Q: What sequence folds into this?
């Protein structure tokens, strides 16, 4: 009987380990039932999605990098840089469409450079994208003179702040990118090759997959998504600033892992990453609902950061525990 | 038989993994001071049994008595301290540390410091007649030397029983002889050894007693003198096999591929040609450059001035993807490292190379993909519960078949097989030989590299000997004796 309960406990842990993001979301939602404010309404859902949309778009991109057994820590700087580029171009008279396109392409180019350094020069993704992030941060500070920039152009403002078929437009864009990324990763040979080379680079190479091109492309996608997120964010709040996105790369990379896309490469997916981001943003949203950030005025941000840290550490620890169990199983 | 003579006795061991019964009622006894062979096809349960002994797996039921002590629950470190060491096929050494540090890893305190550890390591190495410097890094050692270090490490724990899992798979013939001398020496000193191997010759040469396993059962334990080679094979596979090799195919035709001037750091001016429908064998010692040649052809390694012509058309091959496009397939030497994504399913591993061919506008056609997997699983009779089973749960032979299936689906003109039967059981070996025959009969060409000389000689139409990065001879295996070919491969030919 002792053994039975033990194995039952292990089994439950194993299942929870696999579905931890869903469990976390469920727990948060249950907690919200006891909140005075009613979160289960359309408006709340939209408000939540609008805030989470930029991070979600970044996470969709980062998923590609993580599945290829890499990561991208430059996404935060790419995001703030692309926002600044878009706004400054518009302010200097460039048509909105062109400005946005150039801003997005800036991310594509940075992704391309990241890919070159990582795939061709064989650098470690973690450290090179960290450095790239700092570099771009410098560029952003320089370009914006370390001040927030904004534009009067209503067309730019309306990119994220209008409605399309009854939905906030930023959410629609996020969903479109999500679906595209999902299909790309799930149904195309490119996506499957990403999984293969993340699972085992050598094997993928030996089975004739063009590993260089595939991994490179993954970084281009990551960079592009981050730049799109930058445009969406700066349009939503009509501001571009070099101070945005400091924590974004950590938050997004962690959320992707929390969702179930492993840093060990080869497993995971877009939907999981979306869930991972949902966990983090729900947490933030709910803390606001519970007024956790208002209990002691002045330390609100600290409490939030503390809770984020606890959740990340706990979930990653569970993740690794599940992997450990799995290894001992076979 | 005297009871005190038994060092290890296991009784009625059962072990199940999800979906598989790995061991059923396994019982055997190992006598003190003997070399006890354990043979069986892959998946027969040998490794599982050894892993239970060492404490990596826990048994479901049964008893283990080691050295008069009943062992209920054990961990790897406890078993080692009790005097039961295992030397795995993949060595368990820290590459970045020195030999002395590796031998006494985690015991520096007991040894009263690093200097004493080195001193003690020296003594132990001397005792088995090895001259390895205890201060050299393990990463600089050859496979044979690493094995010496492993044996020394086992001895440093005063092991009464040393289990060796496929110790010969990475050794050259000379190194193997030295290993045998050491094993013999240890036997005289009263150390008991369990020797697991696929190579029956070694078993007959070395062991006193043999246990044959099949499908998780222990078929029988017998004195080696009471057994013939054919008996043993029959016990292993449960039926008699008449031949170890099928009849040699003779389909060689026109010249298909010409390779000129492979030059790398290791290879010197390698040029040869391959005919359509031919099986070309490369013979040489481990490290002679056989693998490097095929890796250069396939594009896995860069080579200077390399000229490859297929059907008189000059090819540019810079990376494996180019090799694949040019109709060359490679079954790599190390199937776990370079051949399979072990965490992927059988289906995913098989279709890995063909995805681009069955994709429309980049989108993979899933039903075609499943067809491919089903077709190859059936054609190669891969034993897997479902196509979605992870490849790491399959036996070595079936894993190898998955990689074969991946390439056969692409139907390459040239298939390069690098050690296709390493670590594979007798039954599956024969199936792979038949497959090779089928490939050349259908117009494909094969280059085969193998450390098992009889296999190359029995299957090839032509043999090239390679020694220290050069081609030292070309032979027709039907006309030349194995001895002459080996002579050229060792470098004594000219």
A:
């Amino acid at each position: 009987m002792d053994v039975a309960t033990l194995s039952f406990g292990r089994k439950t842990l194993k299942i929870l380990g696999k579905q931890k993001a869903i469990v976390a979301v469920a727990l948060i939602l249950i907690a919200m039932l006891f909140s005075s404010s009613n979160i289960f309404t359309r408006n709340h859902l939209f408000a939540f999605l609008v805030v989470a949309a930029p991070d979600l778009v970044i996470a969709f991109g980062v998923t590609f990098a993580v599945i290829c057994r890499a990561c991208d820590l430059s996404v935060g700087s790419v995001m703030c840089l692309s926002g600044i580029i878009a706004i400054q171009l518009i302010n200097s008279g460039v048509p909105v469409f062109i400005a946005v396109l150039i801003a997005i392409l800036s991310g594509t180019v940075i992704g391309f450079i990241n890919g070159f350094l990582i795939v061709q020069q064989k650098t470690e993704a973690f450290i090179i994208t960290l450095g790239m992030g700092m570099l771009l941060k410098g560029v952003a500070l320089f370009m914006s003179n370390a001040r927030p920039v904004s534009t009067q152009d209503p067309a730019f403002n309306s990119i994220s702040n209008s409605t399309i078929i009854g939905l906030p437009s930023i959410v629609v864009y996020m969903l479109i990118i999500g679906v595209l990324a999902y299909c790309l990763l799930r149904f195309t040979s490119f996506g499957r090759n990403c999984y293969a080379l993340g699972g085992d680079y050598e094997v993928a190479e030996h089975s004739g997959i063009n590993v260089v091109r595939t991994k490179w492309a993954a970084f281009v996608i990551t960079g592009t998504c981050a730049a799109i997120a930058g445009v969406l964010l700066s349009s939503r709040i009509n501001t571009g600033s070099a101070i945005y996105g400091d924590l974004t790369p950590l938050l997004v990379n962690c959320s992707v892992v929390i969702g179930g896309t492993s840093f060990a490469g080869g497993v995971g997916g877009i939907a999981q990453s979306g869930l991972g981001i949902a966990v983090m943003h729900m947490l933030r949203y709910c803390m606001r609902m519970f007024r956790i950030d208002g209990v002691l005025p002045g330390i609100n941000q600290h409490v939030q950061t503390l809770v984020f840290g606890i959740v990340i550490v706990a979930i990653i620890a569970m993740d690794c525990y599940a992997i450990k169990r799995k290894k001992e199983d076979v | 038989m005297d009871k005190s003579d038994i060092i290890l006795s296991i009784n009625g061991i059962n072990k199940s993994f999800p979906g598989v019964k790995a061991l059923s009622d396994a019982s055997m006894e190992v006598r003190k001071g003997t070399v006890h062979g354990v043979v069986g096809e892959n998946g027969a349960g040998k490794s599982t049994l050894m892993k239970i002994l060492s404490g990596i797996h826990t048994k479901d039921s049964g008893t283990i008595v080691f050295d008069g002590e009943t062992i209920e629950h054990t961990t790897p470190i406890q078993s080692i301290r009790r005097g039961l060491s295992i030397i795995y096929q993949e060595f368990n050494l820290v590459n970045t540390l020195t030999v002395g540090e590796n031998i006494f890893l985690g015991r520096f305190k007991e040894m009263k410091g690093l200097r004493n550890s080195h001193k003690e390591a020296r003594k132990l190495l001397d005792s088995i007649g090895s001259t390895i410097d205890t201060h050299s890094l393990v990463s600089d050692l050859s496979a044979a030397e690493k094995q010496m270090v492993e044996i020394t490490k086992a001895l440093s724990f005063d092991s009464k029983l040393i289990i060796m899992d496929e110790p010969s798979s990475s050794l050259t013939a000379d190194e193997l002889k030295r290993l045998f001398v050491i094993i013999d020496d240890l036997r005289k000193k009263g150390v008991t050894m369990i020797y697991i191997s696929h190579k029956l010759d070694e078993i007959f040469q070395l062991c006193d007693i043999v246990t044959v396993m099949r499908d998780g059962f222990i078929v029988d334990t017998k004195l080696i003198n009471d057994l013939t080679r054919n008996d043993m094979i029959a016990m292993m596979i449960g039926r008699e096999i008449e031949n170890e090799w099928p009849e040699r195919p003779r389909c060689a035709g026109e010249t298909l591929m010409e390779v000129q001037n492979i030059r790398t750091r290791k290879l010197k001016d390698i040029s040869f040609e391959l005919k359509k429908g031919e099986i070309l064998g490369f013979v040489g010692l481990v490290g002679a450059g056989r693998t490097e040649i095929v890796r250069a052809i396939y594009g896995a390694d860069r080579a200077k001035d390399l000229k490859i012509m297929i059907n008189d058309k000059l090819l540019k091959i810079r990376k494996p993807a180019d090799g694949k496009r040019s109709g060359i397939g490679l079954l790599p030497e190390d199937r776990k490292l370079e051949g399979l994504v072990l965490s992927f399913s059988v289906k995913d591993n098989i279709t890995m190379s063909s995805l681009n061919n069955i994709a429309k506008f980049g989108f993979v056609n899933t039903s075609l993909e499943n067809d491919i997997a089903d077709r190859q699983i059936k054609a190669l009779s891969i034993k897997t519960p479902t196509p979605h089973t992870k490849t790491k749960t399959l036996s070595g032979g079936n894993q190898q078949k998955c990689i074969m299936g991946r390439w056969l689906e692409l139907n390459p003109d040239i298939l390069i097989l690098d050690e296709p039967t390493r670590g594979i059981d007798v039954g599956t070996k024969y199936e792979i030989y038949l497959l090779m025959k089928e490939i050349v009969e259908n117009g494909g060409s094969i280059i085969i590299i193998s450390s098992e000389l009889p296999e190359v000689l029995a299957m090839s139409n032509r043999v090239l000997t390679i020694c220290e990065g050069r081609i030292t001879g070309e032979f027709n295996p039907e006309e030349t004796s194995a001895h002459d070919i080996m002579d050229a491969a060792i470098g004594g030919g000219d």
